[in-house]
Design goal:
Largest sheet: 6 strands, antiparallel
Number of helices: 4
Helix content: 25-40%
Number of strands: 15
Strand content: 25-35%
Structural class: alpha+beta
Distance between the termini: 106 Å
Number of domains: 2
Order of helices and strands: HHEEEEEEEEEEEEEEEHH
Radius of gyration: 39 Å
């Protein structure tokens, strides 16, 4: 078999020699082709290595960014956990001070607490009085940190304190809190007022905690945007979120520990999006699935003209 192979190769070599007329030139030509193929092969291999290296570098860059993000998130979580522990310590210290005044139902005091690492200070306000009823006194502890405001309300009974409400608000949003009858049931409720710091448009909020008939507990929080409360009517009117002259107003009615939607009112617009001068009263917001027009008016009802934010609704702002 080997001889047969040699018999096949030798005639081919001779044929190449005859064509070129010089066996040395044929050999040189073949060698040059081999060198060229080898160069091309090496270049392709280097290109593959370069691509792989670049891919590896990109992957490493992405991995490092993700590791940095996770590490930063971990640090934030740890700091928040530490702050929470410190804030709880401040509350515990306040309660210890309160315990020394068990025999008193009415008093006020305030002081500043410094964190163990001196990273920040907490303003602590303590007050006790018959805020929500004449039967049992309430203790209110307010802690103000650089980032948040914590409000704890306790009921004092048989010289023991029971927490009945807790509210936390971002310090940059908080504006005030008040004790007043909001729903017209004759009981004093707790309201926290704040203003949103993100987004456009008018965004004054109120979180309402209704005092229950037992005068010892509160409902869950009701949140209203740009509200005007009318306890005598047991009604809440307000301006929805939106640009001046382009939003709606709402009307709600208290129903024990619930709020029923009465209506929404807004400007009527034609097919071109232009105001017609009329007003639409509907059962829901115009972009809701179950929206239904209830009335079409040529004037704005007087009950809405006196609410806070009405100038925003009409876009008649005084700059």
């Amino acid at each position: 078999m080997a001889k047969r192979t040699e018999g096949m190769l030798i005639p081919n070599l001779r044929k190449a020699q005859n064509v070129n007329g010089n066996p040395m030139k044929a050999t040189t030509h073949i060698f040059a082709i081999a060198i060229l193929l080898l160069f091309i092969s090496c270049r392709q291999a280097n290109e593959k290595k370069t691509v792989a290296a670049n891919h590896s570098d990109t992957k490493t860059f992405v991995d490092k960014k993700e590791e940095e993000r996770l590490e930063k998130r971990k640090q934030i979580d740890e700091q928040e956990k530490l702050d929470s522990i410190n804030d709880d310590k401040v509350l515990s210290e306040a309660i210890k001070i309160v315990e020394q005044r068990k025999g008193q139902d009415r008093y006020k005091m305030s002081y500043v607490s410094t964190m163990p690492d001196s990273s920040y200070q907490v303003d602590v306000d303590i007050k006790s009085d018959f805020y929500f009823s004449n039967e049992l006194p309430n203790l209110i502890i307010r802690r103000t940190t650089p980032s948040s405001i914590y409000i704890d309300i306790f009921l004092k009974k048989n010289q023991l304190y029971q927490k009945i409400l807790f509210h936390k608000q971002w310090a940059l949003e908080y504006t005030s809190d008040t004790i007043r009858d909001i729903n017209g049931d004759g009981l004093k409720d707790f309201v926290v007022n704040w203003y949103g710091r993100t987004g456009c448009c008018l965004k004054a909020f109120s979180n309402v905690y209704l005092l229950r008939s037992d005068k010892k507990s509160f409902s869950n929080s009701f949140e209203f945007i740009n509200p005007t409360f009318s306890p005598k009517e047991q009604i809440v009117r307000g301006v929805c979120y939106g640009h001046p002259g382009e939003t709606e107003m709402y009307k709600y009615k208290w129903n024990k520990e619930a709020v029923d939607t009465i209506e929404y009112i807004y400007y009527e617009k034609n097919g071109k999006g232009e105001k017609t001068g009329k007003f639409i009263i509907s059962n829901n917001l115009p972009y809701s699935d179950n929206h239904k027009v209830l009335k079409r008016l040529s004037f704005m009802p007087a009950e809405y003209r006196k609410i806070e934010g009405y100038d925003w609704f009409t876009d008649n702002l005084t700059l």
